[in-house]
Amino acid sequence: MAAYILRRLAYSLITLALFFALIFVLVRMTGNPADLYLPLNSTQEMRDAFSARLGLDQPIYIQFGRFVLDLLRLDFGDSLVRGIPAMSVALNAFPRTAALALVVMPIAATLAIMIGSAAAYRPNSIAGRTATLGALVATAVPDFWIGIMGVLWFSVMLGWLPTSGTGGWQYWVLPVLALAARPTGILAQVVRGAMVQTLTSPYIKAARAKGISKQALVFRHAFRNATLPVITVGGEQFAGILSGAIVVETIFGWPGIGKTMMDSILQRDFAVVQASALVIASSIFLLNIFIDILYARLDPRISFK
After folding, report:
1. Are 179 and 252 in contact (CB under 8 A)?
2. Which range marks the domain in which residue 155 is found?
């Protein structure tokens, strides 16, 4: 197992290196921060001094070398807007996004199991077809559209829920609804496909010949053996929530790392963008390694070699 984990870490480090090289290029394509933070009548000397303070006056290869050294030290400097270490800004915002994901995934998994099981139990019935169609629609509808429509209906028109911010359970409803739709649809299709495939396997046919009820076959035998792809896809969806919460957090003013990163991009706060990208990417890669190990533990046919 140790060799397997080391290989996965090596692959992850290579991917992370390429990812951060891309981040380095993209954040500098947003423009010079001097255009935002200096007055319109600022002189060229003022602009040069501002760029020199941030190290942006150096050739691009020197900036990249400093970026790599800062990355190895996990020190991206201070936030241009907040005046505190950029890594502290990212780490303070990440728990709010993680909490949102930890609430979304159990809800999505529970709904997906119910919908996918109903679709697999009687695939040609009205309930089965409706469950399948609902899963497809949930997968296809963008989460930002669900968020905007939720604000329009439940906040503006009905006045039931707040439009943005954090606080009691009311503030969680719309962000959770927007983020849970896609994972629910994807996992429901995975549950349905895995259970339908399992129900056609020889051991299920043998159990059916022994007189075991269809309900017991579906929920006691088939679902137990269909959990492996659900775990894998569920882990991917959890990682997708961490990386894709930027738009939803921005819509609802949720002070997570996604909104922090979006605000920093608009403010050209390069240090916070880079620190936030490190926190998000590292959490996703560690989660993927954990899912791989868990999957191999649950399935004895998978080897760590």
Report:
1. no
2. 90-298
